[in-house]
């Protein structure tokens, strides 16, 4: 499995976020890497509130959080968010997050399709009975990254999981979509994998939580977001063609719907609505 990537794809205004928080990624213990892409840790101490915005990946997240001015530590499971995910940060706080690989959450919750959690955030205890308030406190109050990562490892290693070749297949297929810009149409992709379109859609609903078409479009929006945030000379018509859009207007519409503002406005530093 690949090590944690260091890019900021999906984060809206990453420089603004990274000026305000300490953000790190760490690998999980080796037995967990089949299921978990990385741990992500954030700490903040803000003089005024800040809203962070993320265009999510097709992944389920488990988070242990502590808003120190608001109350006790707690934990949540967040399914794949269909739109932009916004989190308001205030005062002092921290998050210790687990980003499951696409397909990697299902072995921990095999009784339901991953699509059951799509668009939902719920107390982690509803999925993992061991994710109590004491568990959250134990993880987020550790003094340093090494200790927090060790606590996350200990929690996940103690959970029952059911290895599933179909989960591994889903993980591999999403990885191909993310890495290969030539994957543009679901029918062509399904045929290349020796699957019918319907079988591919069922696999993604059960193990990823969203459709293959959603994944293709989301990763292309990530690419457009990255370019809009780092360059001012983007040829949007050419990029739209490269990403498989019928024309520039379709790309701009999808970007605006997802991010909240057109790509040119984002490139000029406008804030999402």
TrEMBL record:
<protein>
    <submittedName>
        <fullName>Helix-turn-helix domain-containing protein</fullName>
    </submittedName>
</protein>
<feature type="domain" description="HTH araC/xylS-type">
    <location>
        <begin position="168"/>
        <end position="269"/>
    </location>
</feature>
<keyword id="KW-0804">Transcription</keyword>
<dbReference type="InterPro" id="IPR046532">
    <property type="entry name" value="DUF6597"/>
</dbReference>
<dbReference type="Pfam" id="PF20240">
    <property type="entry name" value="DUF6597"/>
</dbReference>
<dbReference type="InterPro" id="IPR018060">
    <property type="entry name" value="HTH_AraC"/>
</dbReference>
<dbReference type="InterPro" id="IPR050204">
    <property type="entry name" value="AraC_XylS_family_regulators"/>
</dbReference>
<dbReference type="Pfam" id="PF12833">
    <property type="entry name" value="HTH_18"/>
</dbReference>
<keyword id="KW-0805">Transcription regulation</keyword>
<keyword id="KW-0238">DNA-binding</keyword>
